[in-house]
Predict the structure.
Amino acid sequence: MADGILPGLVKGMATTARSLTRHAHTAEYPDVSPALPSRSRGVIALTEENCTSCMLCARECPDWCIYIDSHKEEVAPTTPGGRARQRNVLDRFAIDFSLCMYCGICIEVCPFDALHWSPEFEYAELDIRDLLHEKDRLGAWMATVPPPVALDPGSAEPAEVAAAAKPARGAGATAGAATARPARVRPARAAAPAAATPADPPAPDPSHAQETKTLPVTPPTSEQTQVLPTTPPSPPPATPTGTPPGTPPATPTTTSPEQEGRE
Amino acid sequence: MSPWLEAVVRAVAVLAAFLTLPLLIGQTEHKVMAHMQGRLGPMYAGGFHGWAQLVADGVKFVQKEDIVPARADRWVFRLAPAVALIPYLVALSVIPLSPTIVAATVDASVLLVLAVIGVGIIGTLMAGWASANKYSLLGGMRAAAQLVSYELPMVLSVASVALAAGTLSIIGIAEAWSPWWLLWQAPGAFVFLVAALAELQRPPFDMPVADSEIVFGPYTEYSGLRFAFFLLAEYAGIVVMSLLFAVLFLGGWAGPLEPWLGWVWTLLKGFAVAVLMIWLRVSWPRMREDQLQRLAWVWLVPIALLQLALTAVGVVMTA
């Protein structure tokens, strides 16, 4: 017999005896609920009040498992002689968890914090069609959403806390200008390409129709940049060459829920 | 008490022990093996730590369909579980828990036990032959080869204690036992334990039912209650072998405290041996067929023969 058999046999018995004296690793799941880590991705919960039916989540969803129906309502003017306003009313918000792949993009993309990760995971069904959950069920899961995890020590304070800690607008002219400036600058910067892109296609279309066909992937040449002198340098060269001439420009301002019908 | 009534009472007692002790061993195996592997084992059946798991298993087995393969040798196939099971029942009836607590007093009870245990393997062989399944046949052949190899060292080691005690009666051997035997008969005890494991086809000697090679060996085609009988036979075999080892090599009812508590000592020692068998199963890998045969013929038989010689010398010296 080869050497090491007896020590090996003894070692095997010692190992099993040692694990006999220790606690089992078994998770007694149905009896003892598991201690899930924070930010567990169990199910997606919806705060219906926060949803403006902007459809961002439904459009970004990689497998189109979010269904949103909404209609516009006229809101009577609050002051006499005022203008009646419209607002979106959410009729249906449903997530098909048989399609959902739990990527969390909808939650990331929601500008109004209407969607949240809930650690709840016990929603298995016997029929796959029963996994399509409407907004009442999604809203019920909001109760299980844990409060956000505390920030790391030394990290920057959250934006809303920082904003609340700042002096009020009317306190001083300089302070008010300082706070107002970034808010003012950002729409201006965002408006520049938005305003430029709808204006662009008519201008280069007749002359550059052939050029865009011949040079679809080449980096923008110096001639092209010269053709469009008015646009800012960085984004516009990509837009006329990258997008086909017929497609509408993808700007965030043009979506309305009625146009985005359910597929 | 009339002799007929007494016979019935004794038979019922043996049957009760035969139906409960293997379940106790099986449940112990469930739990001990689970905890040795870092698991919990059965936890639900019966409420408290799954104590009724094997009862539930039995109910399940009763409900299952009793399938006989189309090309099977029907009578042999159906008879095989009984042939495997009943020898252990007979063996259990002559194994004493104490000088008075024994179902049947037989003069040459060691001889009877050894002979009867050998019959049990025939059930396995019948199952392997009658199943019309190549794997079953292979398993049956392996079981037969294992029996042939390990019966000899087992008989030799038992002959050693019989020689030391000067009797073939199990009660007589246990009465003649003294703590000094633990050292004197140690090689024989080792041989007996290894051979018992091999006869029971327990890991590391479970080559006949090696599930990674031949499905479940001779029991592959069995289902329902007949399959359960084979499992019961295995665990009844553990009970028989453990008690036999406890009585022959560990002194049986010899122990401190009151003499009338001797049966408790026998049961405790037997239970310890059974736990050891479970422990070995969890710890060690399965032996290959050639290793298994080599162990029997190259190691166990010579050791058993040496033990026999040692015993003979000891008997002559002390006589």
About this structure: Chain B touches chain A through 14 residues (CB under 8 Å). The mean pLDDT of chain B is 88. The CA atoms of residues 70 and 132 of chain B lie 9 Å apart.
